[in-house]
Amino acid sequence: MRHFYRSHLTPAEVLVQADAFFPGIGLAQVDTAARTRTYRGPLGTLKLVIKAEGGHYTFVEANT
């Protein structure tokens, strides 16, 4: 399933928040790249893709 969110945080701040949040709910980080993260846990896999959009927004795409 694909979810998306437009954040007012910078792409770097979004990744810092993701790296702090997802391990706390039982997802282990299995892949890291400049603007993506992949987490895996007992219920499946989550892939985040972070993109700077025009203006003041960061586009966060989560695929499960």
What's the structural blueprint in terms of helices and strands?
Blueprint: E1 2-7, H1 11-21, E2 28-32, E3 36-41, E4 44-52, E5 58-63
Antiparallel strand pairs: 1-5, 2-3, 3-4, 4-5
**Shape, per Cα inertia axes:** globular
Indicate the proportion of strand residues: over 45%
How many structural domains in the coordinates?
1
CATH fold title: TATA-Binding Protein
Give the SSE order as H and E letters: EHEEEE
Highest CATH level, the class: Alpha Beta
| Overall pLDDT metric | 96
Major sheet characteristics: 5 strands, antiparallel
The number of helical segments is 1
First-residue to last-residue Cα separation: 5 Å
Low-confidence runs: none
The CATH homologous superfamily name equals Kinase associated domain 1, KA1
If strands are numbered along the chain, what order do they take across the biggest sheet? 1-5-4-3-2
Question: What percent of residues adopt helix (DSSP H or I)?
Answer: 10-25%
Record field, number of beta strands = 5
CA gyration radius, whole angstroms: 11 Å
What is the name of the CATH architecture?
Answer: 2-Layer Sandwich
Structural class: alpha+beta
